[in-house]
């Protein structure tokens, strides 16, 4: 859970995942100045913390990135690698607790530098403006929507002229490099491979997208957890796969869900207008990574994970192979 959860409403861009998230592999690579507070705080996943009148050797302590007061005409910048490349739809610049020292204006540039570029190479990259110089407020979540269909790998946050920013969130659609998707089985449900959570019956305790994030869940808050269900029925999670493919192994990981794991789970698959069972209703254990080998060979584009009656899932992994057509589509999308 972060401090910068979008306000409710029909604002699709803000419900897209944060491509700069540290948990996805994002990193703050460089900043021209971090005299007061360090740049890495920009992508911390935690709510911003603040205690007034706490002074360190450099001044008041802030949970964010804060530069010195400029005495020239320049501006400050920080360079961020996205965890997974993608199309950026919205950027949030959260100045929580920066009141007398927030940047009055910000802008954001983006570039596409595939591979593993060094900072020196990135500084020479072809940067495009995705958020022009825009007004920002102090102690606020400043939101800027982006209408640019290009795929980017890095962003640069500019402060005009200087100041402090608590958090940067870069919402967008992952467009991963499909090199290697052809020869190896991959997790067709992984966000990093281009899958997405498209719906959940209940998202009371955590963001359901946590269930398809990389790595092991760090805690119960890191996966999907529902409220206790007090009515008949069951909870479910919808996932659009990275592409049309055949799933051979399903991993249902209830790690950290000790007294609130689902009793049972099943998975339904969808391919066009057809739906079919991928995993029949199966008993689950608390705090356990379950692995099921699936017998079928029908391709699917999306799945619904059903949990009975409620609980959640730390991680859902669906290992399989893309169809040749789906692989070609991803390659075209990545190159365009
Ligand atoms: N009281 C402050 O916050 N002062 C300043 N910042 C820090 N971190 O002390 C400043 O000058 O921007």
Automatic annotation (TrEMBL):
UniProt similarity note: Belongs to the allantoicase family.
UniProt keyword list: Hydrolase, Purine metabolism
Alphabetized GO MF terms: allantoicase activity
Highest taxon above the source species: Bacteria
Domain Allantoicase positions: 25-174, 194-322
Pathway(s) this gene product operates in, as recorded in its UniProt entry: Nitrogen metabolism; (S)-allantoin degradation; (S)-ureidoglycolate from allantoate (aminidohydrolase route): step 1/1
Entries under InterPro entries matching the protein: Allantoicase, Allantoicase_dom, Galactose-bd-like_sf
Enzyme Commission number(s) of this protein: 3.5.3.4
Signal peptide: none
Enzyme class: hydrolase
PANTHER family found in the cross-reference section: ALLANTOICASE, INACTIVE ALLANTOICASE-RELATED
Catalyzed chemical reaction(s): allantoate + H2O = (S)-ureidoglycolate + urea
Protein name in the entry: Probable allantoicase
GO biological process: allantoin catabolic process; purine nucleobase metabolic process
NCBIfam families given in the database record: allantoicase
